[in-house]
Amino acid sequence: MFSRSSVYQCMGCGEKEIISEASLGAIEEIVESLRRNVRVLGNGWIFRGEGVANQGVVNEIVSAIENGTPRTVRTMLDAGWRVEAAQALYIYLTRLEQPLIPASIQSLVLDNNNRNVPPEVVASDVLGLIKDELPPRHIALVALILNLLDCSIKMSPADELRGHTLPVSMLPHFFNIENHHFMDEWRRILVIFVELIRQASTTLMPTPSTSTAHLR
Asked: Where in this chain does the record put each Rho-GAP domain (predicted)?
């Protein structure tokens, strides 16, 4: 019987936070705005605004996230720079230089020995380890991004290929996908990731951070 607790322990997760409270607050502002406007922006723009985004504004928002200034981010969003904010969030996640899910937890998904375990079971166990092993702000960041992806996918066109474009583009932010992963493995990982996104909306509930609570 498959058991995450008996084989896969998050031995290397540690207690160091991946993000500051203030930077998390800035990301909360972006995610909340994008969720409210996902129908306007469309699925294809959520994390891919290179062609239409004002790069100067994008850089300014990236700096605001990194410096932890939620008020600046909110001001930019109120001015209508939502596509730029989405691109800035993507850039910020890229600059973390590590997947949002630690390698020890990723092993549940990437280990080919689990190929016969149903995707929903693997996803549930991954979310369980995230809740049990990661520090609070790290959990909150993962929850925010997965929640945004879930919202965007639900609003995406019914076409299956288009519906999977966004999860594909975000896979490297969550998993170390190596060249040696063959196509069938890659598809299995993607199916688990989509299930992870779906379950996270009820398993990992984002809660407002103290950095932005006073702004509301």
From this structure: 17-204
Which residues fall within 8 angstroms of residue 93, CB to CB, at 6 or more apart?
A: 100, 145, 173
How many Cβ atoms sit within 10 Å of the Cβ of residue 67?
Answer: 12
The answer to whether 48 and 142 are in contact (CB under 8 A) is no
Instruction: Work out the percent of the chain whose per-residue pLDDT is above 70.
Output: 75
Of 16-20, 45-49, 81-85, 115-119, the least confident: 45-49
How high is the pLDDT of residue 84? 92
Rounded Cα gap, residues 15 and 145, in angstroms: 20
| DSSP letter for each residue of 129-186 | HHHHHS-HHHHHHHHHHHHHHHHHHHTS-S-HHHHTHHHHHHGGGTS---TTS-HHHH
- CA 104-106-111 angle, to 5 degrees, is 100
Distance separating alpha carbons of residues 82 and 84, to the nearest angstrom: 5
Cβ contact 25:137 at 8 Å: no
Ramachandran bin of 17, using left for φ above 0, alpha for ψ from -120 to 50, beta for the remaining angles = beta
The percentage of the chain sitting over the pLDDT mark of 90, rounded to a whole number, equals 52
All structural domains of the chain? 15-213 (1.10.555.10)
- First-to-final CA distance of the chain: 47
**HSE of 35, CA atoms in CB hemisphere, 13 A:** 16
